[in-house]
Amino acid sequence: MTNLWEDMETGPDAPDVVYAVVECLKGERNKYEYDKDIPGVVLDRVLHSNVHYPSDYGFMPQTYYDDEDPFDILVLVEDQTFPGCVIEARPVALMGMDDDGEKDDKVIAVPTEDPRYDHVQDVDDLTDQQKDEIAEFFETYKNLEAGKEVETLGWEGADAAKDAIEHAMDLYDENFA
Q: Suppose 33 and one of 44, 104, 105, 165 were both cysteines; which one would form an S-S bond, judging by CB atoms 3.0 to 4.6 Å apart?
């Protein structure tokens, strides 16, 4: 069975076009995580706060980030996909985040195969409402979990997202290749 984190490449043209492995679905409170030892997607927990994922959320294969997890990616979709779905995506922004003292940035991307997002190339192409909803979700989704503190640290453009992806690919190579 294919291990979606270890066996797939980061993307067909990383860091410009990457693969996003979906774990959590737009509109849901279930926090799924890919378990490379199974391999498969498992229910990690149900979010304690009454919030839901603003879009499909997961990780990029063969990446490892400063929080010692695969690098996170939120792909803007019109309709949710399913846990384990692989989406070819174009990074357009990076949202800085601190999760309990750990750097836990999020790449924001759009599907390459959805013409509704062809015009979205960089952070300035996202609406203020989109950025506000994404930031609000990540600022509040752990509020009711004891002792958890999350802070969003602002937005950077597509170039910063691609630089962070290259960093995560290098960390993966240093730790696992």
A: 44
104 labeled part of a ligand binding site? yes
Tell me the C-alpha to C-alpha distance, in Å, between residue 143 and each of 12, 119, 138. Answer: 37, 34, 10
Q: Is 13 annotated for ligand binding?
A: no
Is residue 89 within 8 Å of 73, Cβ to Cβ? yes
Distance of CA 133 to the CA centre of its chain: 15
Q: 18-176: which CATH topology?
A: Inorganic Pyrophosphatase (3.90.80)
- Taking CA atoms, 2 is separated from 33, 50, 125, 141, 153, in Å, by 16, 34, 35, 31, 35
Q: Does the predicted model carry a pTM greater than 0.90?
A: yes
Q: Is residue 128 marked as binding?
A: no
Q: Is 64 annotated as a binding residue?
A: no
Domain ranges of the chain: 18-176
Is residue 45 a known part of a binding site? yes
